[in-house]
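Hey, quick one: can you model this chain's 3D structure?
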Amino acid sequence: MLTVNFSADNHIDLLQSGTEFFPALIGAIDAAQHEIFLETYIFAADDTAQRVKVALMDAARRGVAVRVITDWIGTGRAHSTFLEEEFLHTPIQHRVFNPWFRRGVVRTHRKLCVIDRQIAFVGGININDDMFTDDSRHLPLSAPRWDFAVRIVGPLVFSVHAEVEAQWLRMGGMKLRARWEEFRRTRVKISPTAHAPALAGLVIRDNLRNRRTIQRAYMQALGHARDSALLANPYFAPGHKLRMALVVAAQRGVKVTLLLGVGHYRLQDAVTHSYYPKLLKAGIRIVEYRKTELHAKVAVIDDDWATVGSSNYDGLSLLVNQEANVVIRDIEFTRTLREKIEAGIVDGVEVHLAEFESIAWHRRFWHGSAFLIYRFAMSLITMGNGK
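Sure thing. Here's the predicted structure for all 387 residues.
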């Protein structure tokens, strides 16, 4: 297992929802001079995505090398084909990740962009309008989707660039020798400068050498937590080890709070609710965010550890899909993100143990059945290695 490889002297800005993210992203694309890599799970067919697409096309026409990776499931089969045909008439190079499940069920769920190897964006925000649900229904939301990304300037940009460039090369068909060289390159660790501020590291999840890296980064942080842990996520169905890390932290006095999204998928909500009684009995505070769609995958532990990324707390993100988070060790950034999560908690509805101790038998049966369905599905997908 690789630990987080921190680099120092990074300048990292927190961007909340599309209101802050897309102007920053499009502004950086408009200023690009040499190269753009963009990797996203969803590249939608809406006005927001169109603005990003136009910016990419303009950059390509002025000579910038533009390479775009989209996921076949996230973007959709029909729209993936449309994008391929549209980009064929521009200088943009476009590759679709795992069409027709040729590589099994794995998806690229990452949201990465690197421009001129000088600026990078990492987070949970797809290329879509945050005033509509991100599923096929495309229903209007009452408020912008609650989500986050970071803009990075500094040495960490090179790590993000190396990762998305390697993804591009792999999708183009790397020969065995090239794959071995890539494997060796990713083993090189960056030594942190202990006295420098804004330490940050890129943590990825793949199905080769980084199968549990993101989960272990969370578990390590929880294991060292002293005072508090605030975690926000839309899909909560972690394995036994991560659940126990949360419980153990709470039992030794750490104030653990989960801010969870609900109302998107009925089965997912039932699976999540199946965990509530044991977590609440352990002293973990649970708050459900119902103001709008919660899509953020963020956490703050104590006053100097924070993460922003694409990884959910479910089996698909932690054990199957390709994901990317940034871990930041910086007091000022952590304080800013903590304030955002606390504001989300204020907008949420706290769950109390009494509500789940007195629920009707048919609801309890539904929660248990949903958990068994989920566990069976994950066992099939992960070939029994889903804990």
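One thing worth noting: The two ends are 16 Å apart (CA to CA).
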